[in-house]
Design brief:
mainly alpha, two-stranded parallel sheet, 33 helices
Length: about 950
């Protein structure tokens, strides 16, 4: 068989065609099954019986309401008794009441739980807890009235918390005591600090220690309600402590730093142990550490260097995202179990990546979780194989295998290979919360890797603080960019606008430089774009931060614009190391062969994804925006001095022309438009330097559309050429406006504009629009010239329109015999006949009406001869109205001379004649209408 394809390629083609046939067969079989189901539908089932009405309240909800109301009433009664009736009893009676009622309330739930009356037991237990608070209050009022209130409250809260914890642990079926014990546990240390006379620092330390205890409860307590209550207390007290530490970092940096670092350590430990809270807790820890470090830096450096100190600390913290592996001693060896399998980050089911690191000559690792024969215990995973190589590899596998036992907690494990290479894994457990003990463990002896959530939170905190530092450094950028546009002096006066932000710290430029270096080290597209944008901002802010003179500022802006526009055209040097773009929604191509799974042979849907954007394109646009902004700012700054204006406009014109010639996509179009506008500014500058009057400047501006029309004819692609020509044509509008004060020059400018448009109309792709534009400009030039000569005859204005219009209509009718006469001749005839008719009705002379009547008669006869509806109707109407105008005076005289009864009599006779011949007249009118309608 003769075939140009190699056997392997032909085999791939055949297999894919077979897969498509199988897919089509499956679709047809599904359609056939549906059609059979429609044709042989089962009989309709009986209508369902109406459901009984649902009760307004279930027995359980009614019981809860009754118990809640009962407990609330008993609590109110106990409070009222304690506050009101307490004084009427003696010491013995009081003790008896307290002991009996409280003991009964706390003992009753035991019997109720034995009878499975859980809700009743909850209500009685809640009453007992309230009674214990009232007992503590009563004890203070009677037995210990001289005791300090805050100190007694702290001790009482500690005792109650311990008692309630023991009570809730003894009766685990009760859900109220343990959360209430956690709430009571929030009070002892803060109240004790206040009772001891401690200030804000002591109170913050007490709150922090309490928050740390809450964190321990969150990590080790089992009931969900207890953990939620502890989280709430930890957030409230820990937040207060950290806010106090932030305030102290400004007033007392060392004490504030100690408090913040302790809080950061506690929060970091919680983030390490609780993956669900890892990102948020690590971010808080990072912010606390940065605040502490920044406060210490502020004491050692001048005030202007405080923000750079914060930014440097923040960038050091953000670097943990890429430097999250801490080296450790030992050689790599495969391990099993939670500690050897790596760090379990989320502890949830599913697949997760395993990171394989390399040491020495490098090693490649492979991770496998719950392999097909995996039967290990919770958290164990079989070892994968490693091979020698260079660099590092990352491999991830599913949490459970197809033939495994599906034991919860099985996860990926990385295996080191040759040369003492170490492998650190960070995967996700196969199910449940299994593997909690494995969080924070190291790899198989190779190194210690922070969990992903912790690294993300710390890096996010550092990036956020660094971003705030960059925002602080942006005012000089805004001043350097927009300052020249806030003009307070005349153009070419030689005086410069006063500088702004002269007292702003010069270290803002240092912050921008550090941020540029940090982002440039990130091998991601967003990092390169950020570095590029901040580098442009740094160059823009330097004149303000360093107080550069006028010439240096102008030169730096031109250099910035030139560099940015060059990068916009050639962004290649900034793209090395960036990942190739991947089409979103597209599936990766897989190899074909006998061992390829059958699902990979299925035909793929093409065009499902959106086109990916190349990194060079994004970087080019970022640089392009900065280059244009710097160019505009440089032009505005150059208006102070005449020589600088010409220099800057010339340089910008060259730069934009180069981008339009060498650039790609829409950047060429925008650069071409900018080049035309810059050239226009250069022409205006020359005219202003030469002292041209406005009408001479208008003539000079016509050079722009003339040049753009010539350049557009030789420019490719068409989009650039069209943008150049449209911009040049738009420049003609202000030229017309400048010449309005001199009608003669206005007519000349309009005529020259018509000449340029007519020359453009020679090109086939511009013929339609340019020809109409040329005709309109010539007509306007003629009218302006006639108005300047004080010509008032309307035909002088209308005939220049009518004659070309009729010629064009005649040519169109020759090319298209089906064209309507209204389209071909109507506008041209109406342009002259109607204005002339209005002038004839107000003209006392006889020559104009006579000429108009002759012309209208000729038009009517031509329309009747060639069966042209527009000519016949327009000519007939104008002829009739013109004749009426001429006969009207005589008719008025005749009517005045006749007797007054004669006109009504004649009207009556006319009506009788019409009535007698009504049918015939109606047929004649219909025949006339049909004949006119058949005309073109």
């Amino acid at each position: 068989m003769d075939n140009s394809l190699p056997p392997a390629d032909e085999l791939v083609l055949v297999d894919r065609e077979l897969a498509q046939l199988d897919a089509r067969r499956s679709q047809l079989l599904a359609r056939r099954a549906w059609l059979l189901q429609v044709l042989y539908a089962p009989a309709a089932s009986a209508a369902p019986r109406p459901r009984p009405p649902v009760a307004d309240a279930t027995p359980r909800s009614a019981q809860n309401v009754l118990l809640t109301l009962g407990g609330t009433l008993l609590t109110i009664a106990a409070v009222a008794f304690t506050l009101v009736s307490w004084g009427s009893m003696g010491i013995g009676g009081r003790a008896a009441v307290l002991s009996v009622v409280t003991s009964a309330a706390l003992a009753a739930p035991v019997a109720l739980l034995r009878r499975s009356l859980v809700s009743t037991a909850e209500s009685v237990a809640a009453l007992g807890l309230v009674l214990m608070v009232l007992d503590a209050y009563a004890l203070h009022r009677v037995a210990l009235p001289e005791t300090d209130g805050l100190g007694y409250s702290a001790v009482a809260a500690a005792v109650l918390a311990g008692a309630w914890t023991a009570y809730g642990s003894a009766l685990p079926r009760l859900r109220v005591p343990l959360p209430v014990a956690v709430v009571a546990g929030q009070l002892p240390l803060p109240l004790g600090a206040l009772a001891a006379g401690g200030g804000p620092t002591a109170f913050a330390w007490a709150a922090l220690v309490t928050a740390a205890a809450d964190g321990a409860v969150v990590l080790w307590a089992r009931p969900r309600s207890v953990r939620i209550t502890a989280v709430t207390g930890a957030v409230a007290l820990g937040g207060w402590a950290l806010l106090t530490g932030g305030w102290l970092s400004l007033t007392s940096p060392w004490s504030g730093a100690a408090l913040l670092l302790a809080g950061a350590a506690v929060t970091l430990y919680v983030s390490w142990r609780a993956p669900a809270l890892a990102v948020g807790a690590a971010a808080v820890a990072g912010l606390a550490a940065l605040t502490a470090a920044g406060g210490l830096v502020r004491t050692a450096v001048p005030a202007d260097w405080a923000v750079p100190g914060y930014v440097l600390c923040a960038l050091a913290l953000a670097s943990l995202w890429r430097m999250g592996t801490v080296p450790a001693t030992g050689t790599g060896a495969a391990g099993t179990g939670p500690a050897d399998a790596g760090v379990t980050e989320a502890g949830t089911g599913g697949a997760g990546p395993a990171d394989a690191g390399a040491a020495g000559t490098g090693a490649a690792g492979a991770g496998a979780g719950g392999a097909e024969a995996g039967t290990g215990p919770t958290g164990a995973a079989p070892a994968g194989a490693g091979a020698s190589g260079t660099g590092a590899a990352e491999a991830g596998a599913a949490g459970t295998g197809s033939a495994g036992t599906g034991v919860p907690g099985a996860g990926p494990a990385g295996v080191g290979a040759v040369g003492g290479g170490a492998v650190g894994g960070a995967g996700r457990g196969g199910g449940g919360r299994g593997g909690r003990g494995g969080r924070g463990a190291s790899s198989a002896g190779g190194g210690f890797r922070l969990p992903r959530g912790v690294r993300l939170g710390l890096a996010g905190a550092g990036a956020g603080v660094a971003t705030l530092g960059v925002v602080w450094a942006l005012p000089p950028v805004v001043a350097g960019l927009l300052g020249p546009m806030a003009r307070t002096t005349a153009v070419w006066s030689g005086e410069h606008t006063g500088r702004v932000l002269t007292s702003y710290p010069a270290t803002a430029a240092l912050v921008l430089a550090v941020a540029v270096a940090a982002l440039a080290a990130v091998p991601r597209l967003w990092g390169r774009c950020g570095a590029l944008a901040l580098a442009w901002a740094l160059l823009t802010a330097l004149p303000v931060s360093l107080g550069l003179p006028y010439a240096a500022t102008l030169a730096l802006q031109l250099v910035t614009s030139a560099a940015a526009l060059w990068i916009a055209v050639r962004p290649g040097p900034l793209t090395p190391g960036l990942r190739a773009p991947v089409r979103q929604g597209a599936e990766p191509e897989t190899g074909a062969g006998p061992a390829t799974p059958w699902t990979s042979w299925a035909p793929r849907r093409t065009g499902a994804g959106t086109p990916a954007v190349e990194p060079a394109t994004v970087l080019g646009w970022c640089a392009y925006a900065g280059g244009l902004a710097s160019a505009v700012s440089a032009v505005a700054l150059a208006l102070d001095v005449r020589g600088a204006t010409f220099t800057v406009l010339g340089v910008v014109l060259v730069l934009l022309t180069g981008v339009a010639a060498l650039g790609t996509d829409a950047r060429r179009v925008v650069a071409a438009v900018g080049a035309v506008l810059t050239g226009t500014g250069l022409v205006c500058a020359v005219a202003a330097a030469g002292g041209f009057a406005d009408h001479w400047t208008a003539l000079a501006l016509l050079l722009v559309p003339a040049v753009t029309a010539a350049v557009g004819a030789r420019t490719r692609p068409r989009a650039v050429a069209l943008a150049v020509e449209i911009t040049g044509a738009a420049v003609a509008l202000p030229a017309f406006g400048l010449a309005v004060s001199r009608p003669a020059f206005l007519a000349l400018v309009l005529a020259l504009g018509g000449v340029i448009a007519a020359a453009t109309a020679v090109r086939p792709e511009r013929r339609r629009f340019a020809s109409w534009t040329a005709a309109a400009l010539f007509l306007l030039a003629t009218w302006v010239r006639l108005a300047d000569w004080e010509v008032t005859t309307p035909e002088a204005y209308t005939l220049p329109v009518t004659v070309p219009a009729l010629v064009l209509g005649f040519l169109r009718r020759r090319r298209d015999t089906e064209a309507s006469s209204w389209t071909a001749y109507g506008p041209g005839l109406a342009a002259t006949l109607l204005p002339s008719l209005l002038a004839a009705w107000t003209d006392p002379e006889w020559l104009r009406p006579l000429a108009l009547g002759v012309a209208a008669l000729a038009v009517t006869l031509i329309g009747a001869r060639f069966r042209l509806q527009a000519l016949l109707v327009l000519g007939g109407v104008v002829l009739a109205l013109d004749g009426l105008h001429e006969l009207a005076p005589y008719v008025v005289q005749v009517v005045g001379a006749l007797p007054r009864w004669l006109p009504p009599a004649l009207a009556g006779l006319l009506l009788l004649a019409l009535g007698a011949t009504y049918e015939q007249r109606l047929r004649d009118a219909r025949r006339l209408r049909d004949r006119v309608a058949r005309m073109r």
